[in-house]
Amino acid sequence: MDFIFEPWPWYVSGPLIALVLFLLTMMGKNFGMSSNLRTLCTICGAGKHADFFRFDWKANRWNLTVVLGVIIGGFIANYGLSPDNAVAIANESSAELHTLGFADAGKAYLPENLFGSQVFTDISSLLILIVGGFLVGFGARYAGGCTSGHAISGLSNLQLPSLIAVIGFFIGGLFMVHVLFPILF
Amino acid sequence: MRVLGYLFVGIFFGIVLFKSEAASWFRIYEMFQFDAFHMYGIIGSALVLGIVQIQLIKRFNIKSFYGEKIVFIPKDRGYARYILGGILFGLGWALAGACPGPMFVLAGAGYFPILIALGAAILGTYCYGILRSRLPH
């Protein structure tokens, strides 16, 4: 049973994500995480400012329940199933990150300089998290879905719009990592 | 009962996202550097099995666990919104190192700075809703 406490390889994780898609589909629901962000806006009263948020959020309570589960799952996985959560990324990536100033690449789950507790008082790290998060939220809703809604469930249903969106994800991601990272870090 | 089903699927998904390291900022960087097969293996294998299962459900008209017809809603047609929204999303995904699912996972895993990114993602969603009618779709 020790393998549970090790990082899970792709050929285990990928099929398990397909199982999540299967279970939600068989419950009559559409797999998608980012639509919850819209639901949260509506709950906070955004319907007063834009039609986009005027819908019956209670119809999405099932998905908020999934999100609650995802949060609990993250807790269980980190505190119960990961005695050592260091991520052994490829040596090339690790070396590249060391030169950019990410000293803990290959030794931690997340980079300390972006996710350590000192970021709350570090303006540049805060800005990176804020801009990154903002683009994720804005882009996901503009594109009508995120990784789960387009790359997994949309492409699984052979949707051309999802393919266009995923191509966009990669254009943006590659530009960020290859062009903007050397400027930002 | 159904509520418990959703909760358990969510817990399972959260554990898979964390243990697969898909919620690791480092893995997203590595993916965009094409230095490892890991992330492509996860998304690719999930996708192949996803295509097969959806085709089977459609072909054999399989009913949901609750005996209802399963409806797959096609995405709206269009090009601009998918490519532009996709690029913005990709920029954020690489920078924050997390898409929406992993943001919730990391919040549960105790990495509280991710709450800043999550709050900003909610704000981004709100701004999209406000600007929607002025954006090309």
UniProtKB/TrEMBL annotation, chain A:
Domain of life of the source: Bacteria
Keywords of the record: Cell inner membrane, Cell membrane, Membrane, Transmembrane, Transmembrane helix, Transport
Subcellular location: Cell inner membrane
UniProt xrefs under InterPro entries: Sulf_transp_TsuA/YedE (IPR007272)
GO cellular component terms listed in the entry, alphabetical order: plasma membrane
Membrane topology field: Multi-pass membrane protein
TM spans (from-to): 12-28, 62-81, 123-143, 163-184
Principal location class: membrane
Similarity comment: family membership: Belongs to the TsuA/YedE (TC 9.B.102) family.
Xref: PANTHER family: INNER MEMBRANE PROTEIN YEDE, SULPHUR TRANSPORT DOMAIN-CONTAINING PROTEIN
Protein name: YeeE/YedE family protein
Organism: Flagellimonas allohymeniacidonis
Automatic annotation (TrEMBL), chain B:
InterPro entries registered for this protein in UniProt: DUF6691
Keywords (A to Z) from UniProt: Membrane, Transmembrane, Transmembrane helix
Entry's transmembrane regions: 38-57, 78-98, 110-131
Pfam families per record: DUF6691
Top-rank lineage group of the source organism: Bacteria
Protein name: YeeE/YedE family protein
Lineage: Bacteria, Pseudomonadati, Bacteroidota, Flavobacteriia, Flavobacteriales
